[in-house]
Amino acid sequence: MTASSGDGTPVLLVGVDFGLPHFDGDLEELGLLAQTAGMKPVARLTCKRKAPDAALFVGSGKADEIRTLAQMHGAAEVLFDQSLSPAQQRNLERHLELPVNDRTLLILEIFAQRARSHEGKLQVELARLQYLSTRLVRRWSHLERQTGGIGARGGPGEKQIELDRRMIGDAVKRTRERLVKVKRQRTTQRRQRERRDTFNISLVGYTNAGKSTLFNALVKARAYAADQLFATLDTTTRQLYLGDAGRSVSLSDTVGFIRDLPHGLVDAFQATLQEAIDADLLLHVVDASNPGFPEQMAQVQKVLNEIGAADIPQILVFNKLDSLQAEQRPPLLEDQYDVDGHVFPRLFVSARSGEGVDALRHALSLRVLAAQKCMTPDAAIELPGAAP
After folding, report:
1. d(Cα 330, Cα 276) in Å, to the nearest integer?
2. What is the DSSP string of 130-188?
3. Which of 134, 97, 109 is nearest to 12 (CA)?
4. Which of 93, 113, 171, 177 is least surrounded by CB atoms within 10 angstroms?
5. Cβ distance 301 to 314 under 8 Å?
6. Alpha-carbon torsion, ordered 323, 328, 331, 332, to 10 deg
7. Quick one: DSSP state of residue 198?
8. CA gap 212, 238 in Å, rounded
9. How does DSSP classify residue 9?
10. Secondary structure letter of residue 19 according to DSSP
């Protein structure tokens, strides 16, 4: 267990290792998520279990240890790196006498803070309503079931739960209907681009890989970019002129992916991610300076599979070349890389310094020319290191 500092509500981070390969032993990503949400991680605790405890997720002994550690460091809340069931969350709060939340709610809170467009706010609201609907039993546990004068079971608690459930159900329905309208508008906009014979490129990648910085470098835009998780939530589309191809293409910057992205968000952001589904080419941006980039790439591929975009051609863009030490720099800035048996062209760039960006523009031009000539991309692009 370790302590750390920062600004915001003091929180204790808890992670449970169930033997899965992606377990973050240092809880680094959870800590970044907490800081992004305006919290201050003051202590971290990890433990190992074969399976979650049905009542307390971590077992009573470890729960006692969490309570002691929280008191020692003055934590006002406990955050778990895994998703908790409503019952586990309720039991933990009673045992620890502190608010308890999980990774899912933390991501939802960040999305709620960062959403700017009308569509983004609707999508976040839908995901939050769906999450809240499973927590009603926890919110109204202080209102007990009572026996009425004529012997009928029921009481104010049960009635309030039913009222809230109905209100949330109505809100979900209204939000879905509004999202359908937004999705219809996006479909109309895409059809207009298709009629103009536009070549569509979407930036995808793990959160904080530098997608927005690369987007700005390519189109000279001013999309919000910051060294933090989920800096960009709303899809931004601009025209990118490729001199070597003699034409413009449509370039879209999409929301970043993350490990264990709540399924409600994947569903709710279907309209936003539609830009990736309908793309002619995906630029999969990877943080080359992050030692865990293979796992991050696997998570991106997993989400692309979930939204039906796995078969769209990809170019891997290994970003943050400027953050690599001299001995870490690759011998070639353009080569090929194998991802689960699929070989993709790869380019190393620094969106911040501009190194490699011109080579990326050239690669994009070749893709566009290949599409115009009805050629296969492999026939058009001959990157150094590529198989003949």
Report:
1. 29
2. HHHHTTHHHHTTTS---B-TTS-B--HHHHHHHHHHHHHHHHHHHHHHHHHHHHHHHHH
3. 97
4. 177
5. no
6. -40
7. P
8. 12
9. E
10. S
Contact criterion met (CB below 8 Å) for 305 and 291: no
Answer whether 351's CB lies under 8 Å from 308's CB.
no
Residues ≥6 apart with Cβ < 8 Å to 247:
199, 241, 368
Angstrom distance (rounded) from CA 11 to CA 147: 40
Q: What's the predicted TM-score (pTM) here?
A: 0.75
Amino acid present at 302: K
Sign of CA dihedral 264, 266, 269, 270: negative
- Nearest-angstrom CA–CA distance, 310 and 346: 17
CA separation for the pair 360, 295 (Å, rounded): 24
- What is the CA 166 to chain-centroid distance, rounded? 30
296: its two tokens = 């991050």
Estimate to the nearest angstrom the gap between the alpha carbon of 129 and the chain centroid: 18
Q: Which amino acid is at 341?
A: G
For the chain, 388 residues long, give each residue's pLDDT as a single digit of tens: 444 444 689 999 999 999 887 788 789 889 989 998 889 999 999 999 999 999 999 999 999 999 999 999 999 999 999 989 989 999 999 999 999 999 988 888 888 777 777 777 888 888 888 887 877 654 444 444 444 444 444 445 456 667 777 888 888 889 888 888 887 887 777 676 666 668 999 999 998 899 989 999 999 866 555 555 665 556 788 899 999 999 999 998 887 888 777 666 676 666 567 767 788 999 999 999 998 899 899 989 988 888 888 899 999 999 999 999 999 999 999 999 998 888 999 999 999 999 999 999 999 999 999 988 764 455 444 444 443 3
The two structure tokens encoding residue 310: 């796995």
| Pairing of the two strands 247-253 and 236-242 | antiparallel
Cβ within 8 Å of residue 234, ≥6 positions away: 115, 116, 117, 119, 120, 255, 272
Give the separation between CA 13 and CA 165, rounded to whole angstroms: 31
| Residue 315 · residue 345 · CB < 8 Å | yes
Angle between helices 357-372 and 211-219 (to 10 degrees): 70
Q: Could you give the 3-state DSSP secondary structure of residue 352?
A: coil
- The owner of tokens 């929280």 is 70
Degrees, nearest 5: CA angle 339-343-348: 80
